[in-house]
Specification:
With 356 residues, this protein is α/β, with parallel strands linked by helices. The chain is built from eleven helices and 18 strands. Strands 8-7-6-9-12-17-18 form a seven-stranded mixed β-sheet, sandwiched between helices. A four-stranded mixed β-sheet has the order 13-10-11-16, covered by helices on one side. It has a three-stranded antiparallel β-sheet with strand order 3-4-5. β3 and β4 form a beta hairpin. Bound molecules: 5-S-methyl-1-O-phosphono-5-thio-D-ribulose.
Length: 356
């Protein structure tokens, strides 16, 4: 995807350093940051310089490459892999990527381990790019169908950032949108602001602007009335963990949007690469839901009149706040899952048909 006309990926490896786009600085500053040690990688995931399920998986994979540069002893790698997995609990891609790396690295001798780790981390990224591109090609069919019936701009609502910035390229929820836009289908995106960290306003709107896709930021509570007015043709969101039952964990607020879509008969799709499927947990109550610092709610950051980034308190000083980062959308509210292998019902049967 492009930033000021130049193609970027969200993560790459250069001269034994992992390069990332620091997402805590967006949209006001575009900063490329160096991760030099595995501790840097863990911290970057925790403080959300990198975020989004596929991207934190890729960062963890490269984190293990950085760990090997420091110390390629298997016991150090085992301990480090656990720290990486625990750096954010909800997105399953983190564990998926670390397990995949560790499987490849177990028993490998010290002469070969670095190259094998680097190739595998690169492969995880390349695979994600391909999967996200295929999600776009598959999801495009739904947008095209709506366009052919409506013969007018297709209005798509999305929540959080399941875009290019959350993956390596293309995004999941945004990939069908970018594919439609590139094909000349008129699309307009309603971007949920996505409190408390504003990934919609800060990141999704930013990347859509850079790709010149028409979009409008709305407060998180606006989607309902837009659906009642017939101003939303479909919703597409991403996911941090999809169970084999079709239940989906995603950014807090996704569930309420799915309820409103269901009530208004607006199709509600979830886009995901297979690395986001948790084949083990069957009951959504067993999904660990990350609780983050309440300061993310009580403080907001923005540009002051001198164009300096400033953080201010917006709550009464004595107020307590609670910051759950994800919620669960039960499968019954989901019209379909858009994956790299095709579109399926959000169900054991649907996923089973695509992924044996
Ligand atoms: O807390 P974040 O910003 O990492 O949450 C991201 C999301 O909820 C995305 O929708 C999800 O990771 C899918 S990204 C393709």
């Amino acid at each position: 995807m492009k930033i000021e006309g130049k193609e970027y990926r969200t993560i790459w490896f250069e001269n034994n350093i992992v390069k990332i786009i620091d997402q805590t600085k967006l949209p006001h500053k575009f900063v490329i940051k160096d991760l030099k040690t595995v501790k840097d990688a863990i911290n970057s995931i925790k403080i959300m310089e990198v975020r989004g399920a596929p991207l934190i998986g890729a960062t963890a994979a490269y984190g293990l490459v950085l760990a090997i540069i420091e110390n390629n002893d298997q016991s150090f790698l085992k301990k480090t892999s656990e720290e990486l997995i625990n750096s954010r609990p909800t997105a399953i891609n983190l564990k998926w990527a670390v397990d995949r790396m560790m499987k490849k690295l177990s028993g490998v001798n010290s002469n070969e381990i670095f190259n094998i780790a680097l190739n595998e981390a690169k492969e995880i990224c390349e695979e994600d790019v391909k999967f996200c591109e295929n999600i776009g090609i598959n999801g495009l069919k739904i947008i095209e169908e709506i366009y052919n019936k409506k013969k007018g701009t297709v209005n798509i609502l999305t929540h959080c950032n399941a875009g290019w910035l959350a993956t390596i390229n293309w995004g999941t929820a945004t990939s069908p949108i970018y594919h439609a836009h590139k094909k000349g289908i008129p699309v307009h995106v309603w971007v949920d602001e996505t409190r408390p960290r504003n990934q919609g306003a800060n990141l999704t709107s930013y990347e859509l602007n850079e790709e010149e896709v028409p979009n409008t930021v709305i407060a998180d509570n606006t989607g309902g009335i837009l659906m009642q007015r017939g101003e939303v043709d479909m919703c597409i969101v991403g996911t941090d963990r999809t169970l084999s039952t079709g239940d989906v964990a995603n950014k807090i607020g996704t569930y309420l949007k799915a309820l409103a879509a269901y009530d208004n008969k607006v199709p509600f799709y979830v886009a995901l690469p297979s690395s986001t499927i948790d084949w083990n947990i069957k009951d959504f109550k067993d999904i660990p839901i990350e609780e983050r610092n309440s300061e993310e709610l009580s403080h907001v950051e923005g540009l002051d009149e001198n164009n300096n980034v400033k953080k201010v308190l917006i709550y009464p000083k004595k107020s307590k706040a609670m910051n759950l980062a994800f919620d669960i959308t039960p499968a019954k509210y989901i019209s379909g899952l858009i994956t790299e292998k095709g579109i399926c019902d959000a169900s054991e049967e649907g996923l089973g048909k695509l992924f044996k």
